[in-house]
Design brief:
two-stranded parallel sheet; 6-stranded parallel β-sheet; 11 helices; single chain; about 45% helix; about 325 residues; alpha/beta; Rossmann fold
């Protein structure tokens, strides 16, 4: 863990929306380890962030807000619920930042998404390329809703002097991820598929697409460290990528998972299903230059930890089903 600035968090009321979720729980642990002693994790049952009333209640008396709460899922979920994803994420982010402005919150950390980048962004993705085209169609409503937080943060900084920053994490993975196939992203979805094929003794495991698309993956605890560092040290209008700088094809990823999980069968690719964005890999120089973030966990090590967590916590439930 990179060193925290002395007293950076002590005595501050730090609100983490989505703090009980996958990334949020890791961020809360990271902040607590860095000395945060007044952490608040609002829950959706008490505060509906799609309403201004809910946002005002959450922002009241806060010194720092990390906005991680989102309605999010994989390609299938995005295809099934594009309107819901656009509305929910736009309303939550826009109203919460406005509520933070009204409450004179000292810092607002908006967590965007790699889906905000144009479909054919030159690789590696540089933050200056965010506006060169339209996002990949299958997740454009979600990506654009989250992208509006960047526009809002810049506008509020310009008009009100608000310290609002915008960060762009690449695809995340790790223990406690979402393994439900209706909502899961690529790595947890693949881990479950491979485990199920192995458990059934199936001769092959079905995988969407051609395997040619590429992605970059960031271990969840590394991302949490990046968010905390930005919360401590960054005060600027420019968006900042959070990634590890390694691009890998989905085909290579599947082969690695099959090897790590000891699955003896074949992979059955289904080219009738979408690959999603053709390539995703980030230029991560800005994060290191501005607040000293560099990912620490290799993909193979992160996958080993994620598989181990799945096999301990999720596999027994699936075996009983």
């Amino acid at each position: 863990m990179a060193a925290s600035a002395p007293g950076a968090w002590a005595g501050k009321r730090v609100v983490v929306t989505g703090g009980a979720g996958f990334l949020g729980a890791s961020l809360v642990a990271q902040l607590r380890a860095r000395g945060a002693d007044q952490l608040v994790v609002p829950r959706s049952k008490q505060h509906d962030l799609r309403t201004m009333e809910g946002c005002l209640a959450v922002a009241k008396d806060a010194d720092v807000i990390f906005h991680l709460a989102a309605n999010v899922g994989g390609i299938g979920y995005n295809q099934a619920k594009p309107g819901e994803l656009f509305y929910d994420n736009l309303m939550m982010g826009t109203q919460l930042m406005e509520a933070a402005r009204r409450a004179d919150v000292g810092k607002f950390v908006a967590v965007g998404t790699i889906c905000a980048y144009p479909k054919h962004t030159p690789v590696p993705f540089r933050e200056d390329d965010l506006w060169t085209g339209y996002p990949e169609e299958t997740n454009a409503p979600y990506g654009l809703a989250k992208k509006m937080l960047l526009v809002q943060a810049k506008a509020y900084r310009q008009q009100y002097g608000m310290n609002a920053i915008y960060l762009l994490p690449v695809n995340l993975y790790g223990p406690r991820d979402e393994f439900d196939p209706a909502r899961s992203h690529v790595i947890p979805a693949l881990i479950r598929k491979v485990w199920e094929a192995k458990a059934r003794g199936a001769p092959s495991v079905p995988v969407w697409g051609t395997g040619k698309a590429t992605r970059e993956f960031l271990y969840v605890d590394d991302c949490a460290e990046g968010l905390a560092l930005a919360g401590e040290k960054y005060d600027g209008a420019d968006p900042v990528n959070l990634g590890n700088g390694r691009e890998i094809s989905i085909r290579e990823l599947v082969e690695l998972l099959v090897k790590l999980m000891g699955y003896p069968g074949k992979v059955a690719w289904d080219p009738s299903k979408p690959d999603g964005q053709p390539r995703r890999a980030l230029d991560v120089q800005r994060a290191e230059a501005l607040f000293g973030f560099r990912a620490r966990t290799s993909l193979e090590e992160g996958l080993r930890r994620t598989i181990a967590w799945f096999e301990q916590h999720e596999a027994p439930k699936l075996a009983k089903a």
